[in-house]
Amino acid sequence: MVKAVAVITISDTCFKDNTKDTSGPALADFVKELFPEANLHTIIIPDEREIIERELKYFCETNLDLVLTTGGTGLTPRDVTPEATKAVIQREVPGITMAVTLASLKKTPMAQLSRAVAGIRDKTLIVNFPGSKKAVTECFEVVKPILPHAISLIHNEVAEVSYIHNNMQFNHTCMHSSNVDISKVALRPRESPFPMIEMADAWKAVDEVMSEWKERLEIVTIEEGLGRVVAQTLHAKEPMPPFPASVKDGYACLSIDGAGVRRVRTAVTAGDAPTAPLCAGQCARVNTGAALPAGADCVVQVEDTRLVAASDDGMTELEVEILKAPEPQQDVRNVGFDIPMGTVLVDKGQILDPAKIGILAGAGYQNVTVRAPPKVALLSTGNELQEPSDVKLKPAHIRDSNRTMLRVLLKEHGYDSIDCGIARDTPPEIVAGIAAALKLADVLVCTGGVSMGEKDLLKPVLLKDFNATLHYGRVRMKPGKPCTFATCEFEGKKKYIFALPGNPVSAYVCALLFVIRALRVACGARGGWARLRVRLAHAAQLDPRPEYARAALELHDDRDMPYATMLGSQCSSRLLSACGTNVLLELPAATPSLQRLPAGAVVPALVTGRLDFYS
Ligand SMILES: Nc1nc2c(c(=O)[nH]1)N[C@H]1C(S)=C(S)[C@@H](COP(=O)(O)OP(=O)(O)OC[C@H]3O[C@@H](n4cnc5c(N)ncnc54)[C@H](O)[C@@H]3O)O[C@H]1N2
Ligand code: MOO
Ligand SMILES: [Mg+2]
User: Fold this and answer.
1) Considering the entire predicted model, what is its pTM?
2) Is ipTM strictly over 0.90?
3) Whether the CB of 572 sits within 6 Å of ligand 2
């Protein structure tokens, strides 16, 4: 899928006078037609090699799929687009330019004079076009049929996804081998070799490891930026309002005139251009949001005036009486009242919310650079698992609910994920599943196989086959005790692996507490959930481990705090206990003297769901 494209016009002439650019808009129109879903960026820059290189690199770093340039490919000394492009690309695609030249030669021998280059930097395809509208039109026709496919290949999309589905869901005889020996079942450890760490230490490990994530950026429209972490500081380029504006429907006056009768010289409604200055003794009828005439320094709302004289037909107000002497600046929003010029509208690291997006829209910003989150892959493990779409279950089988639940949970919090299917409980198949997922993603979230059974192979496979570092392999928490966080090097890149327990509630709670935290921290945001103090609506039995109990909050007008209700058995397999809940109660571990909390006890609650849904 082509998400973002840039069209760069490279021309000294067009840079000085944008209206002279005809090839850029033509190219932009072709792109819109071919990739209607894509976010399109257009800029005009001069024939300066340094600037061209800088802009090309910027668009590649922000993960654009395609960058098309027009101009600067000829023979004059200022034509440096090919040199700049060659300096930026890592792999050339000469076939593209060859095809364009061959096609153009059929139309004009001048095509011999184009030095255009095409190539790839990281995941971005860059293609140079000549600088005239006619040439761009002819050249685009040539490359149009291959562009979507070229971009898919660069992303490695088609090939990889089918590899996964063939290999993992249908083909059990895969080629991978494993260093994990499962033959000596009787000799397996009878105690977990993994130390059980405290929750605070697990969070610390996630925060430390994930904050190393290398900053990756992408340009999105301000609307697509909702919930994303901003990677640039944007300032107000103009004051808001850009003119002195009325706050009320009334009369713009000179405050020095005090109370008394005024001649109504004119009327200004919102959007009307400012009129000639007001003189002493005059006023102008104005609407909320209208530009004040020069000379006026206050507005008197219509309720504080009286009509003195009007034209016979009632269509014109001639005189009004100002009943109360106005103060200077009364009901006036001066230039920059809401937003002075230069104000920081959004700052690096902030999360875009609807109000900030509204402000950016008002300030004329259409796009914003945001942090790109790590790519996430989801993998289920288990011999007992069938696809959710399977109508009939085999004996002792169940449908895989974790993948679907995790996919939508991540989506709810703004993260896409790649579905990597189900791996069976054998070391080679788990190796194959993990390897396929790590090829596509930075973060792998898998479920199942992390506890003490002979089919619980995730930790040994990670250690022995992926040479992984386990940051933790057990956490003192319920549910989620065997939750595992590991990192490893795979194909030259650092990968992050959350191996969550298979029990659906454990997977759900661990995804909320660790995975979403990790993705937020990777984007430079705060990882945790807001914490409230709430009262238990009923007594709660305490577990030897600190427990994250799923509960629904109710807000009562006549009570001092929200009340939390848990929904039936909190067993790790019973996902019904999480349905309709919006908080995780942080219940303390039981002690010999405290085994149970009474109804009304105050406990901390992490707000993981929307409060407005259920309260
Ligand atoms: N001897 C011990 N046994 C267990 C311990 C322990 O400390 N000692 N820990 C328990 C705890 S706590 C948990 S949590 C689970 C963790 O289990 P695993 O991560 O090893 O997961 P599996 O054994 O593969 O499956 C557990 C359970 O979940 C169901 N499951 C698995 N995947 C899915 C899925 N994708 N969709 C729906 N349901 C799934 C699976 O069928 C099992 O019922 O271990 C305890 N045991
Ligand atoms: O830790 Mo497990 O998730 O309690 O059942
Ligand atoms: Mg198990």
Assistant:
1) 0.77
2) yes
3) yes
